[in-house]
Structure formats: structure tokens, C-alpha cells
Amino acid sequence: MASLASSLPEDALLLVLQSVPQLGGLGFPRGDWAACAAVCSRWRALVRAHRTRLRLHLPRDPRLAPPLLRAAVRELSCSRLPLAELSLSLSSLSLSLSSAAALPADVQAELSRLAARSAALESLVLRAADGVARPPSDALSPLVAAVGAEERAALCRVDVSWGDACSAKALGAVLRAAPRLAALRLAGCSRVADARVMAALRARGERLVELGLAACSALDEEGVIQICAACPHLTDLDISRLPISRRALEAILHVPVDDGTEGPLGRPRSSLQRLAICGYTQLSSHALARPLVLLPNLCAYNVAGSLFADMSIDSLAHELAALTSQEAGEAEHEAPCTLRCLGDVNLTECSALTDRGVVSLCRMARSSLHTLRLGGPFSPLADPTVAEIASLKALRHLELTRLATGRVTQPSFQLLSRAASGLELLDLSHSQDLSAAALRCLLSRAGPGCGARLRTLRLRGCARAVTDDVLCSFLPRAHSLASLDVAFCTELTVNAAVAIAAPFSARAVMRRVPSLKACAACGLLDVTGCSKLSERGIRQLRTLEEGEALRVLGLDLTEVNYLNSSMHTQSTSREAEHSANLPPIGLLQLG
């Protein structure tokens, strides 16, 4: 590797080193590999010459924020490195950022100075937890105003979603200062309807390719139409939780054309690839199916929590068949009805969607569908849906949350195991009635089922299904597993902890170095609420976390049995968990 580093030019070497996760952080490897250490000095020099990212995560306990933030910002100020990204993740428990405890004035002043000195700033992210609306405040206005005080030729991404913590004047200044702005996320922002922000949006719309307006309650449908009309080249659009009519949706899905050759609405948005219309939007099921017909290049469609239903999919099939037969010059009954580009569909919480609708949609997108999200507490899905999912050869990402075992039986899981070998993510969270025998069909020791490609496994709340036997037999097969969520799986004991720790033992790491398998991404494990883990199991996992082999959540809470505790105990314990298991606040991430 050292000889390779000396022969490559700087740009090529930077790409190579960035692709090795173990060279993250400050450029030092997580393990003790001499080959990686040989290039660290050059790696640090390259990073200083290219880009620096500052990502700060505010803890849920506001009392922890001031000292940690001050230490992080002080360290960065001493380095004198210019910033390429400033990302501040806000706590979902802080309903307002106006208090000094949430973001001290001296910390914000230092962050403003850092942003002001970084002429090459490319990304500004000041967002909070998704879906949580907050009262508007001006807590971050000085920081945003400092970014917008001068022209930012490199600034291409601004995300102030769900925080609503900067004034309309400051937000408008940032938009005006970014002539190359390509991605803008304003979810939950009440200032978007301000005349200054609207004017800046119209001025920057020609270059925007990504726009998020979810839950912008200050906007009426005419305002949404005006903003979208100013953005003719969008590839990613989020208009979730916005009350709009079908007429407004049709206007949003078209680009106005002045010459009138494309009809009164203009031409369809052929560039749009990702569309989200989640939650309550006043749109009927037939209106929600309209984008699938109108947008030929739509790759990802998110209608979670909407009124999407079977009848709209039936009409969709007829419309697609008619369009296909018209284009091909065939009879309508001979024309195949397919969604050839659709690869990512989110149908969670769509309680009006039954097996018939899901099966029909999967058949129309069978050749391209790689990501499917289904389930919810009121989902009526049963065996026919699971059997159809088993026939999706391109499937890589599957979420089937809150499954009802009475509807989905073990033979269906046996069918699904045939397609599970290609999965990279499997999420069966909160399926409390799922049995260990059914889960073993997907997580078997050998034969059909998930295997070496699986990187993320989420089994949170599957208390009956996740046992020591199931987990211990499957883990040796999961060579690429980087994230495992078994929170509230109360049947796990010290045996599971030993099985999880085994691949990280000194002997195992020594065996894996020559093939570079040990350079996999640093893992994440959540054992919150696993009340049967003994002290030995906790020590075993804590050793991995201290050695930076694995990041473990919930080690301080395994004595608490959440399933039998009161609601007050649950909320208190969860707050303690997030305070004790914070991501490294003030992390200076290079590269």
C-alpha cells in the first residue's frame, strides 16, 4: 500500500483513502495495520489541502451541550483549517433553541467566525430530528447571517430542516449569497413564505435539483406551485404533509412552457427521479398514483402514511397498458404494463393498501424494484404479499415492520428466504408476535436466507423471535454486517454478547488482515433494554466500544426492563440512554 501511495497522484490517492472507512476521523486507522500507517502522513497533508467537515451533535440533555461544544469548537479554531461542511444536528427533545443552554452565545460566535473564514464552504446543515415541528426562533440567525454575509461561490447545499431557528432575513441572505445552490431542504420551516425567501428561491430555482418543502405549513398550494415552477430541473422533490389539491399536484408535476406547445400545464417533469408525498395531503388515492403514470424516469416514490389504496393501482395498470400499447402500436390486451424505472417504494402506514395492491405494484416493477418498505400497526398485509416479494430478484433493501404473525405464516418466510440471499438491509422491527422458527428461515446457519451481503439488520422489539440460538447461529455467516439493532430483545443473554464479540478478538483480526476484511466499516450495535445480559456480557461489549472496534448503544440501560416498566420510567430511561451514549460530539471529521 505504501508503494501504491507513492505512485498515485494526489487526486487519485485522495479518492482511494476516502474509500477506506478505517482511515476516517483524523486519518488514523482503527486497527494496528502498518500498511495503513505508512500513508497517514500524506493523508493528513492531502486532507488539509482539500476539505474539512465539522459535524456537531447536540445531546438531548442540554446541560451537556455547553462544555462539549466549547471544547470541540476550541479544538477546531486552533487548527485553522478551512471548512467545507458545517453540520449541526439538534436535539429532538429541545422544542426551542432560544435558550442559552442549547447553544451558548460564545459557541455560536466562534462557529460564525469559522464559517466566515471558510470561503470554500460547500454545505451548511442546521437540522433537527425528522418530523418534529418546532416553534420558530432566531437562535441560529447570527450563524446563518455570517454565512450569508458574503458571496459563497462553493456553497451548493443548505439544509435547515425541522429546526426553524433562523430568521427570514438570514435565510434569504444565505440563498442570495449562493449562486451555485443545488440542494435546498426547508422541511418544517415557517419562514419560507416570507417575501424575501420567496424572491431568493425564484432567483436560485434554475440551478436547484433537490428541494424539500415537507410540512411548510406557512405555504399555501399557490406558493408551492410558484416555487416548483421556478425550479424546472428538479430531480428530488419532497412535498410531504402539505395540504394540496389534485389540480395543484398536476401543476407541480409539470414544467411551464411559454410557447404553449405542451398544453396549458406545460410538459411533464421528465428529470424528476425522487418524489415524496407522505402523510396527510388531502390527495385521493387516484391522485397519488398519477406521478407513476406521468413521470417516466421516477426511481423512488414515497407515499408513507397516505391514502394510497388498491383501486388506484388497478387504474394505474390500465393506464400504463394503454400508454404502452399506444407507443408500441399493439393491442391493449397484449401490451405489458411495467414501471421500468421504479426502484424504491415506501408504502409503510398505508392502511388502505391490501395484498392485492402490493402484489400488483410489485409485478409492474419486478425488474427494477430494489428497495421496498411495507408494514405498520394497521397494515393488513399477509402471505400473498410476502410470496410476491420472494419473486423480486433485484431486491436489496427490505423493511417489513410490525408484522402480524397471524397473517404472515412460517411457509411464507421459507419462500422469502430464497430471495433473502441478495439483501443488504433487512428490517423486521416491532414484529412482537414473530416466532423464532419464522425468523430462522431468514437467518439460518446455512442454505437459503440472508448471508454475506447483509450490512444492516434491525430486529428491534422482536422479543419472541430473537434468541441466543438464532443470533449465534447466524452471525458467523454475516461477514459484512455493520449495523445490528436488537434493542428490547429481552431473551438475549451473555451467549449473544460473546458471539458478537468473537469476530473482534485479537486472533480473528490477525487472521483477517491479509485479506483486508478487517477494513470493514466500524460497526454499530444497539442492545438497549436487553435486560438479561449479565455483567460479563456488558463487560464484553464495553471492551469492544473502548477499543473502538464497535459502537454500542444501551450498555448502561440493560438492567432496565422496558417492557414491564411504566411510561414515566420509559421516557426517563430513554433520555438517560441518549445522554450516556452520544456520538462523539465535536468530532472533527477530515476527508
Automatic annotation (TrEMBL):
Coiled-coil ranges per UniProt: none
Single GO biological process annotation from the record: SCF-dependent proteasomal ubiquitin-dependent protein catabolic process
Listed GO CC annotations: SCF ubiquitin ligase complex
Region (Disordered): 568-591
SUPFAM superfamilies in alphabetical order: RNI-like (SSF52047)
Family matches, as PANTHER family: PARTNER OF PAIRED, ISOFORM B (PTHR13318:SF190), PARTNER OF PAIRED, ISOFORM B-RELATED (PTHR13318)
The protein, known as: F-box domain-containing protein
Organism per entry: Prymnesium parvum (Toxic golden alga)
Highest classification ranks of the organism: Eukaryota, Haptista, Haptophyta, Prymnesiophyceae, Prymnesiales
